[in-house]
Structure formats: C-alpha cells, structure tokens
Amino acid sequence: MAIDPHSALAGLFVGLLVGLTGIGGGALMTPILVLILGTAPKIAVGTDLFFAAITKIAGVAIHGQRGTIDWQICRRLAAGSLPAALMTGLALHLFGRNVLKVDAVIMDGLGYMLALTAVGLMLKTRLHALGRHLRVEHVERFKHLQGLLTVLAGVFLGVVVTLTSIGAGALGTVMMLYLYPLRLTPSKVVGTDLAHAIPLALVAGAGHWMAGNVDYLLLLSLLLGSIPGVLFGSWFSSRAPEGILRFLLALLLLATGLKILLA
Description:
Elements: H1 5-21, H2 25-36, H3 41-66, H4 71-94, H5 99-122, H6 124-137, H7 139-164, H8 170-179, H9 186-210, H10 216-236, H11 242-262
Helix pairs in contact: 1-2, 1-10, 2-3, 3-7, 3-9, 3-10, 4-7, 4-9, 5-11, 6-7, 6-8, 7-8, 7-9
C-alpha cells in the first residue's frame, strides 16, 4: 500500500481552508473526493466522517481546557442528532445492497446540502441578528421553544451528516447563533460545535463502517495532508481576510451544489 499524493494534496487544501476560516471541512472534502478524485459517493462520505472526527479531537481538548464549550447546548443537540444518525446509518446499512440507489441519494443530498450551506454562510450575520431580536423582544416564548428547537436542529444535523458528511460545522454554527444569540461568544460557538461534531461524526460513521464504506488508506492520505494544512492555516488566519474568504467559499459551495443537482 502507498499513500496517494492526490488525496494528501486534497487534505492539505481543505486543511488550509479550515485553518483559515474554521469552516468548510466536510462541505469541501466530500465533493473533492467525489467530483475530482472519482471516489464512490458512499466511500467518500464514510471516510470523511472519520476524517472529521480525528481532525477535531485536538480542537475539543483545547476548548475544554479553556472552558469554551457549552455542554448543555451540546447535550441538547446530541439528544437529537445521535439517535437520528444511528437510525439513518442503520437504514443505509439495510439498503446498502442497492449501490446505485444509495449513491444517487447521497449525490442528491450533497447537492442540496452544499447549496443550503452556502446560503447559511451568506446569511449568517442576518440570522444572528434575527435571533437576537426575537430573544430580546419575545423572551419567554423564545426561551420556552429554545430547548425543543435545539433538539430538532440536532435531528436535522444527524440525518444530513450521516447521508452527506456535511452540516455539522457550517450549518451547526449558524443554527446555534440563531438559537443562542446572547449566550454564545464566538469562541464558545466554535468549541460547542466541535464538541458536538465528534460524537456525531463517529456515530454517523459507524453506519458507514458497518456497510464497508471506509477506505483506511484514503483516510491516512487525507490526514497526512490536512494536519500541516490546518496548522499553517491557523497560524496565518489572523492575517487573512476572513470575511472575503467566507464569501468566496460560499460561492464555491453554491456552484458545486448546483453542478451536482443539474448534472
């Protein structure tokens, strides 16, 4: 067995963007694996889920030490996402024999989730402002629905992450900023998202692992590229125009999503 240089280069590129912007891991990695490297959709999703879990472990450890994880929000999200991911994974395992049908569902899901993620990134600031307005003007009603809506957001993330490996990062942070506009600082948004994303990726990945959808050599190649990419991107992030990069990333995701849906 040999490390695939193209996969390592893909890991380096995605790791660099994640380090620069804090987003884009699953949303970029799976489309690159499928559209550029020619990986089967179910293998791309299954491998990317374990790739995401491994790369985020160090980040959770740091945020845990700093106290920048809101564990109550994390538990609420997980209460919805983990059972949903488990059920979706079991469904994939049961219907996994129909490879063409599973791949078609994954590709359609990729297209819609890429487009939705792009829209979420573009409207992130406005959704945060809307959440803040509702939280201030309708305090009792907002707080009454807050817990239930968080669990339902987790259910949505559990399904789409298992199907596409996309959503836990970019969409998860947008949802948290809307539902907890006064409670979460930027560092707590990142820390809470990472703490929720790891068990979600592992549970979602378990279904793909049972179905044989994890390529371990591909996973190693991606990690060898992504680790230095994340380190360099994180070091350079304070000098990079984060707002412009987020907008360009949103356009790239939208174009990729439309390409998949219109193919």
